[in-house]
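Reply to dn_fold:

You asked what the input looked like. This is it:
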Amino acid sequence: MNEIYFAGGCFWGVEEYFSRIDGVVETKVGYANGTKKNPTYEEVCTGTTRHAETVYIRYDESVITLEELLQKFFNIIDPTLLNRQGGDIGNQYRTGVYYVNEKDKNIIAKYMDEVQKNYKEKIVTELLPLSSFYLAEEYHQKYLKKNPNGYCHIDLSR
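and this is what came back:
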């Protein structure tokens, strides 16, 4: 098993999208790489904590590779938008790939270099080690499973 963290705007849709993928065995939403310990959703929404809404993904490498997950991630985001995705605006909605295994860094960087060739604008998606991750409140976990008609900025059919 391996794990990776994706920030792709509002975490509700990103979590739902990845939860449907064969080989993904667990997803959780939370707040990554900010400055405050154990922030609340309300605090993150102010932008002052510098956390990104992020999805933890644990996956079975014998079923799906990191490259395949990256392909799916970059299919649902616009990596050239700074601090926003869809209708969501703020630094908590920035895009990022946060790794915990140093061996993944080069794989991700190489993949992002290839993706950059598809855009005239510079990709602003962060590539950083995970420095912190705090689980979001329970009502955010599996939000779109609990609220099938809830807000989602991505096309879940992709």
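The chain has a mean pLDDT of 96.
Hope that clears it up.
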